[in-house]
Amino acid sequence: MINKKVFIAVIGGAQASKRELKLAEEVGRELAKRGAILVCGGLGGVMEAVCRGAASEGGVTIGILPGENRSSANKYVQFPIVTGIGYARNVTVVKSAQAVIAVDGNYGTLSEIGHALQSAIPVIGLGTWSLLRNGNPDNSIIPAQTAVEAVEKALELIKG
After folding, report:
1. Cβ distance 124 to 102 under 8 Å?
2. pLDDT band at 3 (very low <50, low <70, confident <90, very high)
C-alpha cells in the first residue's frame, strides 16, 4: 500500500521572536487543517510553536531529534525520532518531507534549506534567508507573506 499522506517539514530557529513564533504556530494549525503531517527538528522555538499549532488542530507531529533522549522533544511532538547525530539530523528532517517551510532561522535552518534545494525539495520562506549566486539573486526560496500562503504554496508544489 502506498502512503498518500503529505509530509511537510517546518524549519526555523530554536530562538525566535514572538512574531515568528506566532507565525510558526499559524503554519502548524494550517498544516493540520489540511491533513498534512508535520516534520520538524522536535525541539523549542519555531519547532515547538509549529507543533503546538498542529496539535491544537489534531494534526500529526514528528520530531527528528539531534540527541539520544526521546524526552528532549517538545511536549507537542507525538512521534519523537531519536538520532544521536546532532546537526546531521537536518538532512533527515528535510529529506522526510515533500516540501519545506522555513520560518526565520539561523545557520542550522540555512543548512536545511541547502539540503532541501540540493534534493529538489521546494522551500517556501516566511521571513527567512535570501540567496545570492555570483552576486545575483537566486530565487530558489519561494517567498510567502502569511502562514496560509506558505502552506498553500507548499501543497501546490507537491501536487504540481
Report:
1. yes
2. low
Averaged pLDDT, 87-104: 97
Give me the domains of the chain, ranges plus CATH numbers: 7-155 (3.40.50.450)
CA dihedral for 150, 74, 45, 21, sign (positive or negative): positive
Distance separating alpha carbons of residues 27 and 30, to the nearest angstrom: 5
φ and ψ at residue 123, rounded to 5 degrees: -120, 125
Instruction: Tell me how far apart the alpha carbons of residues 37 and 61 are, in angstroms, rounded to a whole number.
Output: 6
- Using the predicted structure, report yes or no on whether residue 158 has a pLDDT greater than 80: yes
Q: How long a stretch of residues is the chain? A: 160
pLDDT, the chain, mean: 96
User: How far apart are alpha carbons 68 and 152 in whole angstroms?
Assistant: 34
Q: Where are the alpha helices (DSSP H) in the chain?
A: 18-33, 46-56, 89-95, 107-118, 147-159
For residues 74-97, give the mean pLDDT: 97
